[in-house]
Protein 1
Amino acid sequence: MTQARRSSLLRRHAGFRWLWVSRAISYIGDGIALIAFVLHVQGSGGSGTAVAGLLLAAALPSLLGPVAGSIADRVDRRRLMLGCELGQGVVYLAIAVFLPDYAVLLALVAVANVLARCFAPAASSSVPSLVPGEELVGANAWLGTALNLQVAFGGLLGGLLVAGVGVRWALAIDAASFLLSALALAKVPALPPVRDGTPVVSFARTVRDGIGFVATHAVARAVVVTLFVGVAFAAVDNVALVFLTRDELGGGSVAFGVVASAFGFGMLAASLVLTRWERLVTARTAFLGGWFLTAAGTLATGLGPAVAAVATAQWLGGVGNGSANVGGDTLIQRTVPVAMRGRVFGLTSTAAFLGSGLAYAIGGVLVDLMSPRAVFVAASAGVLAASIAGVFLLPRQRDEHIEEG
């Protein structure tokens, strides 16, 4: 494939292009909403616990990953994605209009994120239906750029909008983003469920079958286990980074913002590179190499002598994280049967949530007991152990291409 053909993946596959446009719009809107919510709760006199409760309400629906994946495997995925986007738009518009009290706000945020969790496995499992198998690395890298735009720019836009037009209008803009996303999705072809020839079973049986499949499928099991263990250590970064930047290095709020955003720009860089040179990297290499780079970035963060060095280390860790995300998604898409992909992707999101939840639970305790630098060094050892485990868990054979049904 020539360089020109590689760079035109979005132009050549209209269905995938519109899925990417939908994801980019929706992700940026999510970044705006998150900052608006945090600023609203904190500015209304909310404590740190109140802000943590808001973030928990947004994250808890990830536990429903197996259920969300089972839904994606049983229905038309385009219709499911359309319903989820329109539903989120209605929820966020209601929040923007009424700005409800804290308890109702938490409930509405949780409802919106249940819809988001149902969308995610449907989108990830649809990619092989929209692009050829040999282009999955590039396609997943393009979707990675959409997510990384949120990490790199969503928060910045959210802060600017809240400062410029207020919380209500920032949330109204987020609500409008879901309508625009739905309009883009309407141009994606129908994505009906694929039957594998087995009899239709109950929904509960569908969920159990998905969990059982991951337990016995070598690639899916390796991705889920490596993801859980790796995130359980790597996500300690989110707790310790502010203490390292401000207390150990004497940086202010701007310095912390620069360091935190460097990770997102690293993820974006990895995705952009893989969109153009996807043929040079196998999915296995992208996944495992990404985790080794994440371990290196975590260690370099803990050893960094100045803010600039820490920002560079965070960028390196972001490159690793972005690469691992693309590699993991591609491995699942290439080796998991079509009828089972939604459930497997649902379980990967649950594994990531459980890993990050464990990291947040122990991260604060570790920072209190150890120096921030020591926390990063210990975390890097854990990520390295997860990376090495992944080498042995993940089969070495060439990626298997499963035909779309």
Protein 2
Amino acid sequence: MAYYCGNSSGQTATISGESGCFWVSKSLVRSIKDPLSFRRQIKILFVGLEKAGKTSFLLAINKRYSEIIKTLPTKGVERSEEKIFEEQHSQISIWDLGGQIQYREKFLEQRKIYLYNVDLLFYVIDVQDTKRIDESLELFNKVIDSLVELEEFPPIVICLNKCDPDIKDSKEIKQNIKTLKEKIKKKTGALITKIFETTIFDHYSLISAYSFGLSELSPNRELFENQLKDLSNKIGSEAILLLNENGIILSNYSKEGVSGLVFEISAPHFQTLYKTFKEFKLLKQDFLISSGMASESNKVIFKKITAGKYNLYLLLLVTKELNLSKIEKNIPKFSKNLKSLIQTYI
């Protein structure tokens, strides 16, 4: 019978059995919670006050818009599974924690259960609810303190939510956002955090925040960026996005001085357009090409590629003379290099 025990530092553990014993890292033991499958277990938390929009965020990410209007405050915790790819070597569990006071108190009292082994945390704040901003910040501070106490330091994505297009430029919302950013940065210090302004009425704002969080979980995210950088240099592209079939941005690269905001915002629209054209057999080539973003020399190319059994999409920004044959020539090797990386994306 096997067992393990950690030393006082918590860095290593001993596995013992009939054949003897050996040392393994504690992080490995913690990541393998299913000894039969050896799949990496990932835990993602969504935390915030009730009505901050946590459940609506998750529904909108999966384009289940019709369910948003029927959403009620979450009771306790709602668990769901995330799939970045149809076949993946990890099990991603999302915990949507109820924000009502009785559930918050339970969550904090039992923080050793809820915050233990958390890999990624999304904290959602309703920027329209001015009266409860201090209450939301108080909960945020307690969560940060609990993480530090438990020596858990996951990436934290803060979503300043409900920055709806028709009010985001109002004086009140701008002041709320400024206050929140200042106090959040003061509290988080050296922790890995990133702040996004989100709304269910702008799908890109959600995808951007969600994609960033997921990419922080990838052990080879730098290798992905290096592959995109190499392809960019070979084909003369100024910026590249790599997306999965659900529009999640797996990786991106842009040359210094190139603003990718408009480029990234256009990615989901290109993907929808590509699928529509493909369905109605309107594409003569496996490309969509748009010109004239900032000048007539700028072109955006959207292309579907395959990396083994995975269907992926590339969005390329080309500011010089377009050379499709050069792109076609370099895509096969690029796809081959991605194949092994994709299998262990998360």
Protein 3
Amino acid sequence: MTDGNGVNALSLTARQVVYTNKSFWRNPASAFFTFAFPLMFLVIFTSLLGNDETTIPGTDVTVSTSTYYVAAMATFAVISACYTNIAISVSFQRDAGILKRTRGTPLPGWAYLSGRVVHAMLIALLLVLITMAFGVAFYGADVPTGAGLLRFLVTLLVGSASFAALGLALTAVIPNADASPAIVNASILPLLFISGIFIPLGNDPPAWMTVIGNVFPVRHFADAMRTGFLATVFESAHAANPRVPLSPFDWGDVVIVGLWGLAGLLIAVRFFSWEPRR
């Protein structure tokens, strides 16, 4: 696919990623807190809950609380970068008329939005790497290797793309920029709690939490990220006791997250608005 000047789609998207990245780093306060929040929550939760053993949901395998939260905060970082930030920032740009002016330029709309999505995915990857490095340096967390690393990276790729699409879809129901933080947080914060990201749910959560968690993508994404990240923990447990499953990783979780992302993409294509709401 090319435009009149022979510039291909990949080049257009890459250029927009560069422009978006420059804009991102030119707002150092926003960039700082984007990277600080996952690490801040990691330190807070591990300090409050101590470093005791925590049972990984759905298994009988235990892991230190700090290691559990390294995986959980990596998941939170992806959702924050790809869902929360995109939904709020795009809503503000729409109200400021930036999207309308961009729509009036020769730049195709798909290239602009693709650039924002790819940039968000790259920021999510960088956040995950920083969170993992922090966990290894200060909490002795194990880094996934081999098949576990592959599963973790595939989950990260599918999850970041899907939550970015869902963030764009959510802008269709946000009436104005002032309402965007409230609507975005109301749509995601309860799911973060009932999906075991902020507080481990154990093996016997309330039935209603299980039902809601199974419907929405956050819990499936959290489970896939956690089991991929903690692959070495499961391998060690299996070596000590062969009756313990080698890995509870379920590709079905990744598929469900991907289907939610596809639904978000279709909604965004149909209902995305370039002009401010009146």
